[in-house]
Design a protein that fits this description.
399 residues; alpha/beta; Rossmann fold; seven-stranded parallel beta sheet; six-stranded parallel beta sheet; 13 strands; 38% helix; globular
Length: 399
Amino acid sequence: MKVVQINSVCGTGSTGRIATDISKIMTENEIENYILYGVGLSDYPLGIKIGNNFNIRTHQLHTRLLGWHGYASHLATRQLIRELERINPDIIHLHNIHGFYLNIEILFRYLAVFDKPVVWTLHDCWAFTGHCAYFDYAQCDKWRIGCGACPQKKSYPVSWLFDHSLESWKRKRELFTIVRNMHIVTPSQWLADLVKHSFLKDYPVEVIHNGIDLDVFQPTDSSFREKNTLQDKFIILGVASSWGRRKGLSYFLQLANDLDEKFRIVLVGLTHKQKANLPQSIIGVTRTNNVKELAELYSAADVFVNPTLEDNFPTVNLEALACGTPVITFNTGGSPEALDDACGIGVDKGNVDELVAAIINISNHGILQQSCISRVNKFDKQAKFMAYIDLYNQEEVKS
């Protein structure tokens, strides 16, 4: 069997690490495999870069000026197709096909003719909307019957001028339903339920939760408290790859005002500008891809808070639990699916009073480290991502 994964990135960010983790498990099982990606650079030996920075910049301008995302990158997509022809895989596994690097029309018309099984892992909602990757924050459900008058035109993927969300929804519906043999995977039950109400509803949908490396994310000795003179503080940790509106940075700023000196907030993944603008009561750390450093930070914290307003199945929750740190999150998307009553607390979206109460509750009563670790054992990446190999075998037999 030969498998090709296609994703925007390789080895970085959550989807890039998921792709390489799946790849490593395939290699261990003697499955020939490759990752075709278009954004950034990767030293992963099975990664194959397609396109270049000029392609990405041109696609970004095409999106922002004309309002059409996913319809530029002609040369890069033809390069990707040449790689598919050369490798001739038995299975094509799609991840994020948005991100300014692919032409979805060229790709899907090719997949329909190539007629090999396609597995498509949806990491957000972009595949079945006319524009946005998430719509919870905007409380919009136009994606069910057709978009238009998009309330999030200036959210990713940003369009400065035109709103083509209705036309894009129709084009996606046409393109994404012409592949005969496609199996959709979602990392959360929440997203699976949405897919079943979208124009993708006629494809089989399976939930495979994200997994993490429990050899890396585990209780880890850390000198972070000593270095920052936090020995007597209750540390509240937040981690994100980027702190936009959706990730809930504003809620940490409110918590800094509402909690007393006993508590100290630490935020990881900030830009230098965001870090410089923090109040003195918040310690800022810029983005890191060093997983050992992340494990040390999770382990040093007393509680991990994830006030995400829209999310699929965030791996940061799993990483914190694996390091023995309880999690508090808003009940949004698939974020609370990682938790049970013994390892964390879900609170109503946007309710800061509930967030404060949950933090104080854990600071007063605590949650056993072992309860967190026991919960996360079911999300070991080795077991979770072996489900993909089972799915590949199933799809190959069907074809």
